[in-house]
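Reviewers of the previous submission asked for a worked example of the structure-prediction workflow described in the proposal, so we include one complete record here. The input consisted solely of the amino acid sequence. No template or homolog information was supplied to the procedure at any stage.
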Amino acid sequence: PARVSGSFFDFPRGSLAGQCIHEIFEKLDFTADVDHDSVIRDSLKKYGYGDEWRPAVRSMAAHVLAAPLDAARPGLMLKSIPACGRLNELEFYFPLNALVDPSGMADVFARHGAAGFMADFAGSLRGLGFMPVRGFVRGYIDMVFEYHGKYYLVDWKTNHLGNDYDDYTAERINDAMFGHYYILQYHLYTVALHRYLSLRIPGYRYETHFGGVYYLFVRGVNSTHGAGGGIYRDVPSAALVRSLSDYLHGEGRR
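From that input alone, the workflow returned the following structure tokens.
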């Protein structure tokens, strides 16, 4: 589709816009749209955006909620997730029990045979510019949801990659995931969720209970395109998640 004036492609960019969209998805009832207009109107006003953006934001949200997340699981759509089946802004906080540095993290990724564009990520990690650190890791996962006994994490991204759905291909999204170190981010999120679930689910096993990671580049999601554009998916290997968790916890390095 060509660019349409006033479409969500044109929605303002930057951190404030991102906060606004995050809040909208946090407040929406995914399974019913009766309150979508009021939620969108109130959040736009709160962040200083005019009501003229409401149709574009509503259309974007409708596409995101109706988009198939996995071609192999046609019922897996956000509009199928009730409020009781999700957690918004899940805070995590865990100690680093030994010094953590870019080289050590890169070694963890390199040991687990990443393929494709991920194969270069270990090398990229070695270039991160921070000194060895010890302390705590604290953060927030935008959303965690449960579907048929599996748990998934979601991150909302408002990155502008272009003014057409064709600009939000897997290749373009992979570049953004790589360039912004979102890959490291979601692996840390996965470790945090793995630890959280292990404390709360009797008989928990990563292979059984963890469903995957979804980074939704909301400007590029179009529900009529199938399980395709605008969505980044991954299920990190159990070996990598456990190894990264052990590394951060300091096991075997004391």
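The chain has a mean pLDDT of 89. We consider this example representative of the routine output the project will generate in years two and three.
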